[in-house]
Design goal:
mainly alpha, 0% strand, EamA_dom
Length: 302
């Protein structure tokens, strides 16, 4: 069942990325806060419904126990939301999904697994691709800034700088998934249900704090009932999170890189619905990153 849960997470988070991008506005400096509010709100609602339907008991102490993992995930996601304001989804998604390689390396270092040259080939492909795509982004930024004939759109003025956000996402999320592997798989510190409730209620608290900050401190009007794209993203994110904890708890070492390849689905959707266009060089580098992720996902089978 772990493979089915991993694939369902893959589909959910891949689709969520599409709506994250649609809900990101380069002209709205509070865009990432609004997305965070919607995700936390939906997760809080889901946690409550799930708890009552399954007859579970929620222990606030679980939130403290799971807080290191929750913090890593939430911080990484906020960085991801910021990056989407200034980057094409087709660029941001593969870079973010390099987190699977980070998790695999950490699990191998601290909990030795049977690793072959195929695993290392996948990790090298992903790492090289991330560095290469950063170089391409910087070169394009420099070319645009040197040209006086091109009017640079705001969301492309910070392309290389914005690339730091998905890179930070990949690193922090990778460490978070590694910690999750410890909590749910390697040491079994918590059950799947306890971890799910702890994480979703923690995110809900963050959402409440963000709403108070946005509405009463910054005086920004925000109606949760008019946030269609961000609501869709939040629902899909929550569905993916539900299946994710079960996949990670069953087989963290392989589930992590498989799930991280959801950028493939994101890119397909972005080409269909967002009409994003990339250069041939960018397509080539993205293909390398995706190939590395897929190799890691299939390494054990190969």
């Amino acid at each position: 069942m772990w493979f089915l849960f991993a694939i369902l997470t893959w589909l959910s988070w891949g689709a969520a990325n599409l709506f994250y991008k649609k809900g990101s506005d380069s002209n709205d400096k509070n865009s990432h806060i609004k997305i965070t509010i919607m995700v936390g709100l939906v997760m809080g609602i889901h946690a409550t419904i799930y708890m009552f339907v399954k007859g579970l008991e929620f222990h606030p102490q679980d939130m403290l126990t799971y807080l290191p993992v929750s913090t890593l995930y939430i911080v990484s996601m906020v960085f991801g939301y910021i990056g989407l304001r200034y980057l094409e989804l087709s660029i941001a998604a593969p870079v973010q999904n390099a987190s699977g390689a980070v998790t695999t390396i950490l699990l191998y270092m601290f909990f030795p697994q049977e690793v072959t040259w195929i695993h290392f080939a996948g990790i090298i492909a992903i790492t090289a691709g991330v560095i290469w795509i950063a170089v391409i982004e910087k070169q394009q930024d420099d070319a645009l800034l040197r040209s006086q004939k091109v009017k640079i759109e705001r969301k492309y003025q910070f392309g290389f700088f914005a690339l730091l956000f998905p890179i930070l996402y990949a690193l922090i999320d990778g460490v978070g998934t590694f910690a999750d592997g410890i909590y749910l798989d390697e040491l079994t510190i918590m059950t799947e249900d306890a971890a799910l409730l702890a994480y979703e209620y923690t995110f809900f608290i963050v959402a409440v704090v963000c709403f108070i900050y946005l509405r009463f401190y910054k005086k920004v009007k925000f109606n949760v009932f008019k946030e269609r794209d961000r609501t869709y993203a939040a629902v899909l994110e929550t569905i993916g999170q539900f299946f994710y904890v079960y996949a990670i708890s069953a087989y963290a070492f392989i589930s992590a890189p498989i799930i991280s390849s959801y950028c493939i689905f994101s890119i397909i959707l972005s080409r269909i619905f967002l009409k994003e266009k990339l250069t041939k060089k960018q397509y080539f580098v993205i293909a390398i990153i995706m190939l590395g992720i897929v190799i890691l996902g299939l390494a054990d089978e190969l």
